[in-house]
Amino acid sequence: MPGRIQSIERAAAILRILATGARGLSLAEISRSLELPKGTALGILRTLQHVGFVEQDPESGRYRLGGGMLSLGTRYLDGNELRTRALNWADSLASRSGESVRIGTLHKHQVLVVHHVFRPDASRQTLDVGTLLPLHATAIGRVLMAFDPLAVPEEDADAVEAGGAVTLPSFTRHTVTSPAVLERLLDEVRENGWAWEVEELVDGEVSIAAPIRDRRGTTVGAIGVRGAVERLRGEEGRPDMEQVSYVRDAARAISRDLGVTPY
């Protein structure tokens, strides 16, 4: 069997690192991060530019992903049956809840956002399609973890408790980083059939999600809403149950479209 092609592996590594830099990266940053000679990195970048996968800012000289990558990503998402079946229901959920809606699936120990509907108001919002989110700090991620045995969060190797146990990455002071505490929360998700988190990924925001199942009853994704804590958290620190019902209704509707028998 032929071996791996090093130049393609390096090109893929450059594309991945550019995907993490919203403002673009300089040649020196790319070279240093991947431990590549500048000449090698520059040659690969120029080739990726030629095929439209990378763009270079004419003023700063920094590199970022090009439109060709967006086109490939869009084609991948268009072929995603879950996303295709869920489009109308996601729009309906955004209208009923008044909040932004995301649909996510499991991708390499993270949540891949395959669809995003903006909150139905005039506020400035950023499209999250294609974004990777942590499993343990999002409601969608917790749903996937609760019902999919393959959904295991990435541990933070740099954060070690006094007893030597590896903890989970923290995003705010509210993030649950203890695997033991998280497992108890996942038990609640399995019992309730839905998940929520309060300010664990973003300060001031709450997310609520429910599982989407296919015709075999397998959890293939989750749909959820995200919004301000004052809108989605009800009395006594509990979630607004009307919003929970909206989310679960949407999840059941998508599941029916995927072949699940109504219940």
From TrEMBL:
Gene3D superfamilies, sorted: 3.30.450.40, Winged helix-like DNA-binding domain superfamily/Winged helix DNA-binding domain
Record PROSITE patterns: HTH_ICLR, ICLR_ED
Record keywords: DNA-binding, Transcription, Transcription regulation
Keyword Transcription regulation carried by entry: yes
Pfam families: HTH_IclR, IclR_C
Domain HTH iclR-type positions: 5-67
Domain IclR-ED: 68-260
Domain of life the protein comes from: Bacteria
Keyword Transcription regulation listed: yes
Protein name as catalogued: IclR family transcriptional regulator
Organism: Streptomonospora nanhaiensis
